[in-house]
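Got a spare moment? Tell me how you read both lines of this record:
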Amino acid sequence: MIIRPVIDDDIQAIAKIYTDNWKTTYQNILPDSFLKSMTYEHSKEKWSSYIHTDKQGAFVALDENDMIIGFSAYKPYSDLKKCLLLDSLHIIQSIQGSGIGKKLIFTIGKYAYNNEYEKMYICIVKGNDRAEGIYAHLGAKHYKDFIDDFEGTPSNSSVLLWDDLNMFISK
């Protein structure tokens, strides 16, 4: 497996992974109307714009056939000084649990450390217990709860924080 920075040619694949994962992960957590409204085309526009915004980016994981099997995205977090947001983490569903997500988390953690951030955080939608368990297992601690807004759809969410990035460079 190879992890590398995203390029424009990757957008179609990450839009598909992103859309498919949202529709399955957040089923029975977010309203069906919101999930049904998600399209590959809209996600493609979102991620194309995202990676071309200053200080934002993403990494993709590729399998042995150079197929994109997952991605993670990042951007600065304005609420805390020197803090990077792990903004998105998605792995093709059929291979979730194989360690690819952990490798992508560590890639973003190393990026944060190497770019002079001191902390990293991730937002999770309440009810996504599997994700919360993974991040907690990897050292993230509960920081605060808040109401997130997904294009007009409110969601009870939490911020989990890694306040020591050294763990990402020691492994």
Notes: The mean pLDDT is 89. The chain is about 35% helix and 30% strand. The radius of gyration is 15 Å. Residues 11-25 form the longest helix (15 residues).
